[in-house]
Amino acid sequence: MHRASRSRALNEGVIRSYHEGGSVELGAGGAPRLRIYNTLSREVEDFQPIEPPSVKMYVCGPTVQDYAHLGHAKTYIVFDVLYRLLTFLGYRVKYARNITDVGHLREDTQEDRIVAGAARERLDPMELVDKYMFAFFRDMDRLNIRRPTVQPRATMHIVDMWEAIDRLLKKGHAYLVDGNIYFDVSSYEHYGQLSKIKKEELVRHRVEPAPGKRNPADFALWKRAERGYLLKWNSPWGEGFPGWHIECSIMSIKHLGEQIDIHGGGQDLIFPHHENEIAQSECITGKRPFARYWVHVGYLTVRGEKMSKSLGNFITIDEALKDYTPNDLRLFILSSHYRSPLDYSEGAMSQVAAVRERIEETYRRVLEAQEYAAESGEPDNSYLEAIGRSYGRILESLCSDLNTPETISNLIELTRQVNAHLDKTRTPRRAEITTTLSLLSNIFEVLGLIAPETRVEVERLHQVIQRLLAARESLRRQGNYAAADLIRTALKEAGVEVEDTAQGPRYRLSR
Predict the structure, then answer these.
(1) Rg (CA), the chain
(2) Beta carbons of 272 and 170 less than 8 angstroms apart
(3) Given phi > 0 = left and psi -120 to 50 = alpha, else beta, which region is 73?
(4) Which residues on adjacent β-strands are paired with residue 38?
(5) Residues 327/330/335/336 CA torsion (nearest 10 deg)
(6) pLDDT at residue 470 greater than cutoff 60
(7) CB 3.0-4.6 Å disulfide test: which of 51, 173, 194, 232 passes with 283?
(8) Across-strand partners of 264?
């Protein structure tokens, strides 16, 4: 049976007692039905993909001008958990996360961030892109963030952008001024639907200053490049480069289709980036909605201020991983609801590290218990029902708008139940350990936590201990009890308790 099928079968069996008689609506496989907050409606909604069981998800990726920091990590860990949860629930997810390598201008100077970074480091712009793009990929791998289905680069879609811009011009949604092409906000009646900003209020918000624009809120689809500009293409309208907003629309349409299920990013992208994406995408395709659910992640802060490069209060992912494990960072990010701000501090990280150690130690104990679990005998059904209820609460909290703080609280309660059972039961039954390990493995998988030990490592440890016990038995048969006792004492000091039985020596790993 496929892993996902086994997981769903286990879900249905082990949490049935928790949900029976309750008000929680179950989806496929016995898991709760997913509900997610939609920025578009400002409500938590039942998740209903356009063409189930397929799900199309697009997340705005990084502008690769420098090393990624923990603020980026928060966004991509949250969407990694959503990606994992959707997959766990049986959906077939096509996930696109782009790379912005042109067109993202600084608000203060209107300078391309890639060009500015290249000048800073005295590199060709594409050399800078390659340097930080691959560093970003490494950081994501180290954080155990699953690779998306596709990771398109903006510069690989320039011709696609030209075709879309030409369509907008012909439909009357865009206009050309001195080599620049702007989207005409007044041509789209639904502008402001995501941010809830009225058109008459737009002048008070972030807009691109430029002469010749019909409306201050109109935004660039194509920008004219001045002489000597490094990143430019010879378009039908002259040399220039794409606007930031058109890039994501085109990459989403190109790789996922004209309508998608989930579009996400940090909350700072709601306006103008995502608002502009909706406008131009729906005008390009003539279809609404461009995305059914809009999901946004709250800021990571330091002393109450947003972590950002411009403020200089950032910690890169690479720097953080020198002091903390990937599981520390994931649990820290997940300790707060994804839509809420989360303040970074060493004190908070120390608390999370203690929780991580407790969770990992429980996982280790269950792995080790496989080696001494009894094959026969009735399992403790009260224990199995108790951990089943905890597991059910974990799934319910995850499916309730990714309520990961409650998930972690329920996971801590599950570890308490497991440890209490292992402390009380000298020889647990095989069924108890198998079920416990399956539940923990599922939780680790969905949260993206790295299991502390693999089965191979446990097997190697088991082989070493068995050889030491065999040597001890040989010494006892020879009458060399002093040497045999030395082995037993050494094993005890290493956390291995030996029990002599009529069937031979047995061992268990103490805490």
Answers:
(1) 28
(2) no
(3) alpha
(4) 43
(5) 170
(6) yes
(7) 173
(8) 59, 295
Specify whether the CB–CB gap between 334 and 328 falls below 8 A: no
Inter-residue contact 373 to 433 (CB < 8 Å) = yes
CATH 3.40.50.620 assigned to domain 32-297? The reply is yes
For residue 142, how many other CB atoms are within 10 A of its CB?
A: 14
Q: How confident is the model at residue 252 (pLDDT cuts 50, 70, 90)?
A: very high
Distance CA 112, CA 118 (A): 10
Percent of the chain residues past pLDDT 70, beyond the cut? 89
Beta strands in 233-357 (DSSP E): 233-235, 238-242, 260-266, 291-297, 300-302, 305-306, 342-343
Is residue 165 pLDDT above 90, yes or no?
yes
Q: Name the residue ranges covered by the structural domains of the chain.
A: 32-297, 461-509
Do the Cβ atoms of 277 and 245 come closer than 8 Å?
yes
Does 405 have pLDDT greater than 90?
yes
**CA dist., res. 494 & res. 257, Å (int):** 58
Nearest residue to 250 (alpha-carbon basis) of 124, 153, 342: 153
Task: Reply yes or no on whether the pLDDT at 23 is more than 50.
Answer: no
Rounded Cα distance between 507 and 491, Å, is: 10
Q: What is the pTM of this model?
A: 0.85
What are 445's two structure tokens? 């998988």
